[in-house]
Amino acid sequence: MFYLRGCGRWVAASFTKQQFPLVRLSSDSAAPRTPHFDVIVIGGGHAGTEAATAAARCGSRTLLLTHRVDTIGQMSCNPSFGGIGKGHLMREVDALDGLCSRICDQSGVHYKVLNRRKGPAVWGLRAQIDRKLYKQNMQKEILNTPLLTVQEGAVEDLILTEPEPEHTGKCRVSGVVLVDGSTVYAESVILTTGTFLRGMIVIGLEMHPAGRLGDQPSIGLAQTLEKLGFVVGRLKTGTPPRIAKDSINFSILNKQTPDNPSVPFSFTNETVWIKPEDQLPCYLTYTNPRVDEIVLNNLHLNSHVKETTRGPRYCPSIESKVLRFPNRLHQVWLEPEGMDSDLIYPQGLSMTLPTELQEKMITCIRGLEKAKVIQPGYGVQYDYLDPRQITPSLETHLVQRLFFAGQINGTTGYEEAAAQGVIAGINASLRVSRKPPFVVSRTEGYIGVLIDDLTTLGTSEPYRMFTSRVEFRLSLRPDNADIRLTLRGYKDAGCVSQQRYERACWMKSSLEEGISVLKSIEFSSSKWKNLIPEVSISTSRSLPVRALDVLKYEEVDMDSLAKAVPEPLKKYTKCRELAERLKIEATYESVLFHQLQEIKGVQQDEALQLPKDIDYLTIRDVSLSHEVREKLHFSRPQTIGAASRIPGVTPAAIINLLRFVKTTQQRQAAMNESPKTDQCLRNADRLQERQL
Amino acid sequence: AVNKAEEPQNPPQLGHLAIIKPLVYLTLRLSLPDALIRLPSGSRLCTRRSSGAAAPGSGATIFALSSGQGRCGIAVIRTSGPSSGHALRILTAARDLPPARHASLRLLSDPRSGEPLDRALVLWFPGPRSFTGEDCVEFHVHGGPAVVSGVLQALGSVPGLRPAEAGEFTRRAFANGKLNLTEVEGLADLIHAETEAQRRQALRQLDGELGHLCRGWAETLTKALAHVEAYIDFGEDDNLEEGVLEQADIEVRALEVALGAHLRDARRGQRLRSGAHVVVTGPPNAGKSSLVNLLSRKPVSIVSPEPGTTRDVLETPVDLAGFPVLLSDTAGLREGVGPVEQEGVRRARESCNFLATVVASVGAQSPSDSSQRLLLVLNKSDLLSPEGPGPRPDLPPHLLLSCLTGEGLDGLLEALRKELAAVCGDPSTGSPLLTRARHQHHLQGCLDALSHYKPSKDLALAAEALRVARGHLTRLTGGGGTEEILDIIFRDFCVGK
Hints:
A: FAD/NAD(P)-binding domain; Elongation Factor Tu (Ef-tu), domain 3; Arc Repressor Mutant, subunit A; 6-stranded antiparallel β-sheet; 22 helices; 17% strand; globular; disordered N terminus; B: 497 residues; alpha+beta; Gyrase A, domain 2; Four Helix Bundle (Hemerythrin (Met), subunit A); 6-stranded mixed β-sheet; flat; GTPase activity (chain B); GTP-binding (chain B); TrmE/GcvT-like (chain B); tRNA processing (chain B)
């Protein structure tokens, strides 16, 4: 059923133990023939695939365990990737050599950059993706990743052993037990179970257990986690019905065409696989009062809407939109599901009405009068684990070497999942090789904001990335994700290829050189007016104007500037990307200077690490209120910076913690060179290097 | 004489009240007004750092009045940070810095107007050999409020300088390894006290007209920012209503006008209220106004035998036992009277409402925890018959006074002196001068940031201007988190798909 390929890296769905010798890689020759890996990743969704490949890129022998190999890379909900904020995450995943951006460049059918007119800091790279192509390309990539093994199987339980004394946590994970009773051992385990933990699908008043339509949920694993003492919450989400393409009257609807030229997601690609003229359009239609009427008249048939489980405020079902914003027309985007797909995805019509009512409602909508529903929309309710129970490296506080990534942590969206996947994969691998964790700070990337928000504040609704969550938005842009993360990913994590690293280094030095050259060119404003007549340079004084300041004007780009001052600027226009990035740097230059000051302040707090083994509830040397102790105990912040962001942790408590860190450092220094002190110092040193 | 307070509206029942009926309670509540609303540094950190206001990083240069407040011959103002030297040169109009660690006499003048401020001793401590490890300057100026206020405002006008956050000097010193652990021990307590005091100060300050204004402005700005953010995060795919940006633009411009007018006005109009704050409160006809008149030695309040004569909060600056004090007379606390008096009662409660909870929770056991203190005074002691029984023995510690005969006044003044010494000597209470400098700094900062709001160009830049502006306002009003923004977005718009 699955074929083997390439030097035994790919183990086909192993249903029997007899097939395990293929992957027996245990270094202990005396050990029985039980498979042993460095890292096991459970789940083959967007977090799982990124986690598995990231761990493998870092050099770990990795096993990806999934219910069904043919659903690896499945896009279970919308047929699109990216968007505002989410596109930022994808650029960062790509900067760490993750997969999703590259796969999207090979699988899209409609590429469009959102927010084009609102400034490059908030551009949102987005594309409609061919589901089938994405899955194919993803599976090809996964199967060709060195050190990565894929196996089918449902995990029922975790194998736990005594904890390592030098780390916190009440036990340590050392493998998994599958449903068939077989065991696989590993140094680290990553759970990326998405909505499968006690997943429940809801249509109308019907509910049945499932992680995704047609897939079994994970119940044993959910029980294991609860027994271990993890705090579990419940969330809900939904997906719209799918409509037959040939039953829609597109001719009366607004058409949206893709960008020309298409902008690729990945730093390594200059173009995407498909020409703009071959791409598919999207169409826009609106709901109307008849839709509202059907929703309101049938609330009694809709248990998902009535339930109290928290759903997202921002990805609401049509039912909650009608309830919260009555008497309005709501947008419905009709999106292609793929090149040769007969389905259309009505974005904006997520619903859980009984199936027959879904069709009735849809046929009320303009253009959909004769629409046929091929698959009904449905709601999903699932368990998530309070993300305050994990560290910024995504390892759990409770169980050593157990990592969580993706929807299990209360997020929503492919991109949010992928971002966590990369970080979990890297850290699971670093943990095996006993290296310090790879943590992205809020000051370094959207990934950092996402994980810091989750681990310090938790979440009560599915967490989605917005640019408004990011305080250093002008510094953390889609264009400079490589400068921010690729270099660190190469040096600190080892997850980045040599080629990508060298490209990022070249880009960084070229940008720095370009900016300093642009700063050094100074002319009077009248001379600039002669050189570039189309721009009206406003100067109140007769001070000389730098080329960098001229480049700030909307009408000016590197090309026009290089035409005016060919030497030495001409060479910076040869690389399109470099020229565009210099323009962006110029646009934000003045603000970035101030933001850098602020970033330094935050990083100072981030550099002050709190010892991991503090027992906040009993510790005596620190005077802290009971409330503060409980909060610190639950979230276990790793740095003073993170502690100070927890609501309710007072400034006085922070100062007390500072004092405690200092005392601990001194004590440890006295005890002759402790690794923790070293680490604190190293981190402080690294700060200097990390400045943009 | 610090007492566990009774709720003013609910005086303790006296056993022999029949005999000493005229004996009435007066409570004198002491607190410092207008002291720093400096929000503790952590309270900013606790919010998501969307403020955009200057962070306590190595970048910013901070200044503060570091000598105690009250009357003093010399006041010391300190700066710390990379722009310290620059600030010193600007204020002394000198090209060179004075020799390091030597006291030099210099004429300080306001860099904006050139107006001389004071002849002062200045000391230049280049880092790292300084208190904080950074470049520091000390200005030893003559201690009058006008001079101190002038120098603080002059410093605030130097680019790159801002008023220090609570404990920020110490924190910097700590970060740079300049403090030993015993020195830091006290810091936490200090910051705790500051936080507590500031919470009340902020409440009190923000009760007034200015607070009302600030909160209104912050609300407007938060909403405008939320709408711009919604336009950035959702505008493309979702159908936001028409004119969201235009509306935000109109509101921001109106805010700019209001802020500008206020700032021009504030320089002349804002009365500098220095000193400790003493509120006289109690039931009607207890003789509160008589006591105020007695203490201020002038007829501040109208007195009459009729209960409810005082219907508003009357404030008068007085010199009490050598301390500058703002004395407030309040309406008697009672229910069921006319609307005007009810308003007076409401204001009276408000003027000490931030005390009520503290009084109830702090009590006599841990008075040091709070800068808020209470004296229980029983007036009309002249009506006690000398041979009759005294006030009930189970009353909390109290003072007897007769405003009519003046008997007991010396005892009261002595008790007040002790309290005031404790309050004014408390390092946790900041200077009102700094409060004002701080207000002006942030309002000006807000106004400056708003001038960079140009939504027609790069919207991310425009939003950044609003974020910085909002950061300045929320430093004064509190709040300022990202969640507030998201709440408004999801309340006002149907976004998401």
